[in-house]
Amino acid sequence: MEKYNNIVEQLKLSMTIDGVVHRRFYHSLEVAKKALEINDRLDLGLDPEIVYLTGLLHDAAKLKDDDYLWAIIVDEFNGDSNQFADSKAIWHSLAGPKVVKEEYGIDDEEILTAIRYHSTGCENMSTLSKVLFVADYIEDSRGGTWNKEAVDASYVSLDKAVKIILNQKVDFLRKSGRIICELTFKALKYYS
Q1: Tens digits of per-residue pLDDT, 92-143?
Q2: Which of 22, 48, 58, 114 has the fewest C-beta atoms lying within 10 Å of its C-beta?
Q3: 56, 49, 44: which is closest to 127 by C-alpha?
Q4: Is the sign of the CA dihedral 158, 160, 166, 171 positive or negative?
Q5: How far, in Å, CA of 156 to CA of 94, rounded?
Q6: What is the rounded distance in angstroms from the CA atom of residue 179 to the CA atom of residue 72?
Q7: Would you say 76 and 18 are in contact if contact means Cβ atoms under 8 Å apart?
Q8: 11, 25 Cβ separation under 8 angstroms
Q9: pTM confidence score
Q10: Angle at 138 between CA 52 and CA 121, to 5 degrees
């Protein structure tokens, strides 16, 4: 989407380390593309520009300093921030809305909410949130066959794909002994 070339370039610059563009930038482009595909394939009727922008910026906070991300989380979630203390892998999504708002001037609440929950899921996600959640998980560069069931479901039903992904995430986190965020448990219960 040519309209957003300046945002693409800004994101690329922010994801360039020592002169090398980080793979996270290319992942972001692929998620934007996959989100558009899902929107079209399932005839969801979402504004393609909103879908693209959401996918593009979903990981805008991914390469930020942990202390910076944690400060945002503490500020944004007040007394509820402690539940995320041991889950650094999701900090970028929880802090993402503030980064996107401040660095890219995006203040659309639906976009910001989709970015906030793209790693964890949440109860009663909007269609845009579900599209991003699924696109991030199944985008082509993730590779392998581990997500084939979710990919196949994404051709049939967005809710079915969300449910499969939530189950796979919880199963993976349990098997690897990692902390499972309360948001993910609530989302799994909601979509089961």
Answers
A1: 999 999 999 999 999 999 999 999 999 999 999 999 999 999 999 999 887 7
A2: 48
A3: 44
A4: negative
A5: 29
A6: 20
A7: no
A8: yes
A9: 0.95
A10: 80
